[in-house]
Every structure is written in C-alpha cells, then in structure tokens.
Amino acid sequence: MREAGVTERDLSFLTAAELALCYRRGEVSPVEVAEAFLARIERYRAETAAYITVTAARARADAKAAETALRAGNDLGPLHGIPVALKDLCDTAGIRTTSGAAVRTGYVPQRSSRVAAKLARAGTVLLGKTNMVEFAFGPFGLNPHFGTPPNPWDAERVPGGSSSGSGVAVAAGLATAAIGTDTGGSVRIPAAFCGITGLKTTVGRVSRAGVTPLSGTLDSVGPMVRCVEDAALVFSAIAGPDPADPSTLSCPAGDVLVGLKRTVAGMRVGVVRAPFFEGADPEVVAAVEAAVQVLSGLGVLVEEMAFPEARQTAEEDDNLVLMRTEGYAVHRQALAESGEVFAPRVRQRLEQGEAVSAADYIEIVRRRGPMMRSARERLAGVEAVVGPTMLTPAPRLADLEAGEPIRLDTRVVNWLGLCAVSVPCGFTSRGLPVGLQLIGKPFDEATILRLAYAYQQATSWHARRPPGF
Predict the structure, then answer these.
(1) 8 CB-near residues (< 8 Å, 6+ apart)
(2) pTM > 0.85: yes or no
(3) Catalytic residue positions?
C-alpha cells in the first residue's frame, strides 16, 4: 500500500533504484505505480506527444504479474515492476511499431526486439511506445505525423531527437526509464535538452535485432533515465551477446554495477576544447566548467588535451554521409513506393544517400578504421574526455523552421566507435538544462558511468523536475 502523503507525482519521479527499494519494503506496489503512471500519461498525453502507442492493458498485466511474483518471493532483480517505455522502432510482438513513420502506422510485428524481450524478462512494466523522428533520422525531435513533442522545460523549444518521446517521457514523469537509439546523438541530444541521463553504448554492447535500422554501422541502443545508477541497471539488463546481431558476439563482457560506486580519486579526465567547446553558448560553457571543477574536487585529475581525431571527424562529417547512404539502402523501396508521405526533411536526407557511389561509400568506410584506432590510442592516457553534450540549450522550434543552423558534434562519438554518457550539469538563466558529456573508450561504459555517478552524487541537477509536471 502507498504510504500516506505519497502522491502520484512523487511516485512518477522516483528513480528505478528508489522504486525497487520501495517495492521490497512493501511501501508501494507495482500495480499502484503502474496506475499512477497511466493516469499521468492520460493527463499529459496530448500536451506532451511523448507516446505514439500507450499499452495500458499490457502495463496492468505486467504490473499484476510483478506484484504477484514479488509477494511470492520470486524476485527477478532490480527492474522487476519498473515502468518503462520503448522508442517506437523497437519491435514488440502484437503491438504496432511505427518507427515514427506514416508508412508504418499499421505495422504490427510478430516477434519482439531483443531489447524488448530482455526488459520483459527482467520483469519491467511496459507503458508504451514513444514518439520519435521518422526512421530516427533527425536531431531535434520533429515529427509531422505524430506531432513534435514540446520540450518539458519550455514548450516553444524542441526536445531533441531522434529519441524525442523517450526523453520527454522520462523528464515529465511519464516513465521511469526508456530506451533510445543513438546513431549520431539520438540518445544524448534529448538527454541534454530534456535534463535527463542518457547512455550512448558502444556498438556491439546491446543487440539491435528487431530494432529498425538507420545505419547498421553506427546504430546503438541505450537507456534514457533519471540518474546514472538507473542507466547502469538498465544497461545491465539489455547488454550481452545475441546471435541475431553478430556485432555483439565478439564484445568483451563486463559488469558496470560492480565498480559503479567506487571512488574516482586518481582517475584522469581530459578536457578537449576543440571541437567540443568551440562556438558554445557562454552559459553552457560556464555550467560545464563548473562540472569539471566538481570532478576535480572529487580527486579526479583534470588535464587539457588535444583530440585531433575529433576535430577531423567534425569537419569532414563522414558520419552523416554514412548515415544517409546506409539509411537510403534500408528505406529505398519505401521511398520509391510512398516517398510522398515521408516527412520532407527525412525524405531529403535519405535521398541524398542515393547519390553516394559505391566507391565513395567504400572509401568512407576505409577511412574510419584508422581514425578509430588513432582515437583509441589518443585516449589511452585518460579514463574519459569531458565537454558539453550540446553547444547550446534546446533551440526554439520556430528558429529551426526558419533555417537557423545548429552545429552538432555528438556524431564524433559514433564515428570513432566510442561510448558516452550525458548528464545534467546545470541550467541557463532561462531555466533550460545543460548536459555534460563524458566520452569513453570502446566498451568502457563502466568507467564513464562510474565518473558520472560520482558527479551526480556530488550535485543535484538531475533531481530537478520541469515546471508544470
């Protein structure tokens, strides 16, 4: 039973770790929590456009099963009974999966994606499928088919994309955790703009089987949550080898929870000014500089460092060309048959891939290997690289529609084969979240999560809630 004085809003903003503790203490039940979330989703669904499909019946069944199991002592682990949402490109058996596209409004898969299946096995409660940029090809969260979710901190601004609905759902208390995908920043951008935590995993860590692809080379799946501990919990549940995704079969095993709460004193972090601070909003710079000082106060050894591979990647932007080319290969039939119903921006980006020759594509792929090796060598002397996730706070939708350019450096992480986590590190004078990005070596999610956890233990930015929610 819910404790006296604990409101629906309170339950909806607890972390997964906190909810898990409440369940095991008998302070609240999974059924009560699921009903609280469904009530909030109903209240805010039109206002937020966070969900494309709400799975209320499934959520109630999942919650009842979790409550019964926990009472019987059949504990599936820390995510048992936790309300989650899936980006709507993760297949769910018997539940439509639109990928944010008008051409797929009637698609109902027969099998679930591996990430959906793993979360189900962990005992989670599926609230629904979240909004997104059509076929995950866009950084700001725009979707003319299902609506563009307003930023929870300022409705005139975008939430970031392409995992827009996942970012909004977590930030607005409409899910405890959500799944996003990141091909060029699609977990980290909405995490930064919405004031939540987002983990961009190394390709190969989490199976992409049953997840609609954009770029088979660059796509990754990761958690979007309230705090770093929750990111580690969700990552632990969804990571691991899967024969249906060969990229996962040769990845090193590792437990990110074992060392998560260890001291970070003596760890080395590099501050990369170019390109990660170039052209950044002064308030963003101030917030990130303050975050670096917090890390230093925790005993982290902070040093300025050069990262020429990152600058070269940002300037050449092979990542974007690869996304366009591989995205076109995936969706060319749908473009040929129903191109007129694609969002104009998405159609234009995909069609640009048609013009890339096979020779040019192979040359781009060939260039990537040496760059990845050089980046790994560059990072050998530090545990992580730190900088702003985004150079500016969330832009106004009107400014984007007017064609105002916004520079993105998040794609550097994808191109160089690295992992990264974005955590809130402050707010601007207008009350907009600022994200701190910690970039790590390939398959070293444990280290960046450990640093990010220590930072969050020393600060409270991640605990803020958007006004009106």
Answers:
(1) 36, 39, 40
(2) yes
(3) 87, 162, 186
